[in-house]
Amino acid sequence: MPTVTSADGTPIGYEATGSGPALVLVDGACCFRAFGPMRPLAALLQEHFTVYCYDRRGRGESGSVPPYAAPRETEDLQAVIAAAGGSAGVYTMSSGGAIGLAAAALGSGIEALAVYEPPYVGPDPAYTSRLHELLAAGRHGDAVELFQRRVGMPPEAIAGFRASPGFAVLEGIAPTLAYDDAVLAPGHLPPEVAAAVAVPTTLVAGGASPAFLQEAARATAAAIPGARFEVLEGQTHGVDPAALAPLLVKLLR
After folding, report:
1. pLDDT at residue 1 above 80?
2. For residue 228, which of 159, 179, 206, 215 sits 20 to 30 Å off, Cα-Cα?
3. Where does the pLDDT of residue 152 fall: very low under 50, low under 70, confident under 90, or very high at 90 and above?
4. Where are the domains of the chain?
C-alpha cells in the first residue's frame, strides 16, 4: 500500500479507489482501514469520487513519531490531501471530526466538509487520567473497556466483545485512544477554529442516536458561520454506509 510522509516524518498508509473528484475519509476512535466502516463506505462512493482512505497515526500501516500532539493529526490529513492532488472533499466520523474541522480552519485544500456526530460532550478529567494510567501500565484491554463504558456500551456487550477475536485488534491500537481524547480535549469546537472554517460544512447526526450526540452536532453546526445541520433518520452513531453514501454524494460531489 502507498504511504505519504507527514510533517513530522510519520509514514501514513493510505489507499485510493474509484474515479472522479478526490474525497478523503477520516475515521473515528478504534477504527482504521482494515477494521471499521470506511472501506465499505468507499465501495459505495467510488463511482462518484476517487476515495482516499488512510490509517490515522498509530493504527494499521501508519506509524506514530513521538511525542504525540493533536496538531500532528491535522498534518496527517493535510499530507493525504496533498497526495490526492492538493484539494479534496472530506468526510469525518466521530472524533475524526475534530481533525477535519481543525484542518478546514487552516484551509488545507478542503473544498467541502461533512462531519458525522463529533462527540463534543465536555472534558472528563477522570476518564483522561484513568486512561493514561491504564496505558502506562500496559493494560490495553482495560483501557479499551474504559472507553467502551464511557461511550455507553452495556456491560454485557463489553463482556461479550472482550471474549471475541476482534477485541485483540482494539488492544493493539489502544494507545490511540489517548490520541482521540487529545483531539477532543476542549470538549467543544474552539471558537477560533469555528470562526476560521470558511468551506461549505455540514454536520450530520443520526435520528436514532443518543440525544447528547445529536445536540453536539447541532451545536457545532451553529458555531460555524454558514454551516448546515442534517439528520439521517433511523441512524445511530454506527451509521449504515448505505444510508450515508447518498447524502455524501449530495454534499461533497
Report:
1. no
2. 179
3. confident
4. 3-122+186-252, 125-179
